Amino acid sequence: MRQRVQIPMPVRYLINGVLIVLLFLLGQVLISTSILSSYYQKILLQVGVYVIAAVSLNVATGYLGQLPLGHAGFMAVGGYTAGIFMKSFPIKGIPAFILAILLAGIVAGIFGIIIGIPALRLKGDYLAIITLGFGEIIRVILLNIDTVLGFKFTGGAAGLMGIPKYTSFPIVFICVAVTCLTIHTMMKSRHGRAILSIRENEIAAESCGINTFYYKTMAFVASAFFAGVAGALFASYLGLLVPSDFGFMKSIEILVMVVLGGMGSMLGSVLAAAVLTIVPFALQSISQTVADYRMVIYSVLLIIVMIFKPSGLLGTYDFSFTRILEKLINRIGIHDAVAKKGEKSR
Question: What is the b/e burial string over 168-196, where b = at least 16 CB atoms within 10 angstroms of the residue's CB?
């Protein structure tokens, strides 16, 4: 009987690391050789921001099985935190931006704890309603806090202007890679298994000794943290933040990406975020007639996908290059050849 080959975990991480580096170098070459114009580079940066937002929401929605509708609120917290920090911090440049990204994630995570402790005691529609309310509260606070304080802080309805623009392809790429790697590692750990068990059957998980409230809060805070990172990148990309950018429809837009890609599939969230960010620009560039109806066409495409693929583009499937490599090695019988060679040498 042929023994199945299994690639050791350190080798898996090494292979994935090499692939990430090669993908990064490919992007740098395309940008440096001007194959990607500045217009397409801006679209690429937006894709990276929405990938982080979608993957982070997938933690609470796909893996945990809850339905929060206030994700845009955490992006707003992260974006405004980073923007205010970069404007007031005496040291400028990339180091200040990196600190701003970390601070944005931490503050958004703190808001995740504040909102998650009361909200996660509820389920289903009630959780959706209360998180929607918290998201709107954050937006209204950002809109009116200057009047309450008596001095300029968030810029109010006019927005927070003059945010330094440090968002670039290398930084966005690194943030996307770190986000996906961190969430993947978390979900493969015992903590991730506990989160998945809550999604499958919360009562059964609790009866097995799993602290369901603790793990629900953990997943919610992790989701909020990376939403804050996405908000920081978004703020430095635009250079201007307006509270209306983080309304209810922004949360729905990110939720659509998760549902369309497949709830519980990280690769699905990445693909859906990329497609749904690129499609409006692609429709706009075809012709003026198509541009006038691009949102209608965009909506029809979403409806068609959900009718014929209600579980999302990838369902719960997650791509793994090393798993495909293992199957390929076992299929072509390399392991058998090595084993026979070893027996002959004896």
Answer: bbebbbebbbebbeebbebbeeebbebbb
